[in-house]
Amino acid sequence: MASINDVAKAAGVSKSTVSRIINDSPAISDETRQKVLKVMKELNYVPNSLARGLSNQQAFTVALLINIKDVKSFSNPFFYEVMHGIETVVYSRGLCMITANLENTLKQNEILNWLIYGKRTQGVILPSSIMNNQLVRELKKIRFPFVTIGEPEGIKEPIDWVDINNFQGGMQALEHMISQGYKRIAYIGGEQVKTFNKKRLSGYKAALENNGIEYKPEYVCEGAATKDEGYKLMKQLIKLPQPPDAVICGDNVLSIGAMKAINEAKLNIPKDIGILSFDNMPIADLVEPSLTTVDIDVFEMGVQAANILFKIIDNPEARQQQSMISTCIKMRESTCRE
Amino acid sequence: MASINDVAKAAGVSKSTVSRIINDSPAISDETRQKVLKVMKELNYVPNSLARGLSNQQAFTVALLINIKDVKSFSNPFFYEVMHGIETVVYSRGLCMITANLENTLKQNEILNWLIYGKRTQGVILPSSIMNNQLVRELKKIRFPFVTIGEPEGIKEPIDWVDINNFQGGMQALEHMISQGYKRIAYIGGEQVKTFNKKRLSGYKAALENNGIEYKPEYVCEGAATKDEGYKLMKQLIKLPQPPDAVICGDNVLSIGAMKAINEAKLNIPKDIGILSFDNMPIADLVEPSLTTVDIDVFEMGVQAANILFKIIDNPEARQQQSMISTCIKMRESTCRE
DNA sequence: TTGAAAGCGCTAACAA
DNA sequence: TTGTTAGCGCTTTCAA
């Protein structure tokens, strides 16, 4: 294992010179640089990141905190892609990404302390669900760079975050239905505790208004979570004196329940009833008919989170930035009336 | 930010003493220990991991390499749980976990070099798909601890790995079918390039033999990957002069295709044809009827991978260990003939 | 049981 | 453009 000293000796220069070359300092003659680079290659030299980190007082590491229990907010496929987005940016800057689960041995604050004060990382990306005013105050006090995934609620100071534009998603969902000729568009929404569900519903309502369609409370169900609930709620909708001719569901699971109810009522999708779902999961392609969804570029969300984080790291005075990722409709058979 | 010196001064001891306490050295009087621990708490002291690492010549970090492109072998939900399993063990030992994607800016070897020679990590867990004899030789030469996820192919030297017991899975699948009274059990397998698919099929064949059932080549299709292929293959099976009364599918996607074919033929699941799938994905619970699957404890696989890795780290002379995670049948409606 | 001091591999201020 | 040197925060050997 060659060290900077070995390289310096072998190249006949001082270790400061080698250090300067490692750090791309311009104050080095081309001749020396070539010579040293050659020696580095020969010795298979890789700078010791621990020594660099100690000297620079930074870990060359970014941490992604996840909450494994919080399956709904950032569940499997999503999380995976967010992570990959972050990773792409982090590694392209020559840092490592460390991941840590908040539900592990250490408690939330402890693990953050451990990561931050133990100099294990120089920035974190964390789910908005764990943010609170005290934590924000603390992080700001020590000027520690952080970015939140998801817009945090009830935070007084402005902070940096990225989120899906769920309001836009709700609007797009309704507008897609309208464009396909549906008139009476119902809504089976997910749990209203989650901000993103509230935003989606607001988007739906706003689009109703924009399009001069009357809002009918009996068309809107909230707080559903399981296939079974989707099924039951859809059944009720079908039984209405004037049943809807389309339904927007909060997620794929609800949709599957709703589809079952529609099939049992011998109604045709998409002819009699159109159906559209938030969250573009693999299952949307597999069901019969395939499911039109509101799609999200989760990878991009990771990329933006990381970019914002580096912006703060590079310039601690940078203005806070909030970034919304656009949604788009992934059209499939379930709304293709034609 | 308190350093070891601050603690030493505040406690009126030398920094060696503080260091000994950090490292749980027994050669410390209880009195001193209590005194120093109290000061540490007061100063909110956390040891600088970079300095410790530099001094100890180890990063206190374990790396998980993933191959984001290789969706089939270790795809989303799986990977997520493996990671969580690893993480649980890693953090309980006070180390960090870093993840790195092989498809990133750096190439495979470069990123490994970068991680290892840059002292960024003291052990890696990596997918068997990237293993080759040269890499094994190199890692062994420098005695770098590593564990493979999945049994590697064509590796000459014995190495440490964990894998799902896919052979057992294949046997269990067939035996479950038999126990439910099915007689003519077909098999729609995944791509045979993948070792795990070969093993599953071998298990199926072995179980046939164990149970004195004749192997019928026309009942076995291989190399399918999409819903559509599942559909077509199932259709062919149904058209056979003596069609099967049960089918085992290589994954959930194939199963959905097969179910479609069965439904179109107006056959009942599970009465006329039973269906069972490898891989217990969320979708298995959502389809109608719900799908019996071969389930896998992927979390446990991560735990074992990490445990083996630490065994090697703690004792470089340890014998190589291969660990197989048992499968089990998750019974649902699709095979419930009763 | 404790302390003094050297050293881990790098960076950066200062000098040349 | 390059070299010398002190120092980053910890561990560990040796001595007391």
Structure description:
The structure is a homodimer of 338-residue chains. With 338 residues, chain A is of the alpha/beta class. Chain A folds into two domains: 4-164 and 301-326, Response regulator (Rossmann fold, 3-Layer(aba) Sandwich); 166-296 and 329-335, Response regulator (Rossmann fold, 3-Layer(aba) Sandwich). Chain A is built from 13 helices and twelve strands. The first copy, chain A, has helices at residues 4-11, 15-22, 30-43, 49-56, 76-92, 108-117, 133-141, 166-179, 195-210, 227-239, 252-264, 283-286, 298-314, and strands spanning 61-66, 96-101, 124-127, 146-149, 161-164, 185-188, 220-221, 246-249, 274-278, 292-296, 322-325, 327-330. A six-stranded parallel beta sheet of chain A has the order 2-1-3-4-5-11, with helices on one face. A six-stranded mixed beta sheet of chain A has the order 7-6-8-9-10-12, with helices on both faces. In chain A, strand 9, helix 12 and strand 10 form a beta-alpha-beta unit. In chain A, helix 1 packs across helix 3 (30-43), helix 8 (166-179) packs across helix 9 (195-210) and helix 10 crosses helix 11. The longest helix of chain A is centred in the first third of the chain and has 17 residues, at 76-92. The N and C termini of chain A lie far apart (68 Å). Chains A and B meet through helix 4, helix 5, strand 2, helix 6 and helix 11 of A and helix 4, helix 5, strand 2, helix 6 and helix 11 of B. Chain A binds a DNA duplex (16 and 16 nucleotides) through residues 3-5, 13-20, 22-23, 27-29, 32, 47-48, 50-57, 119.
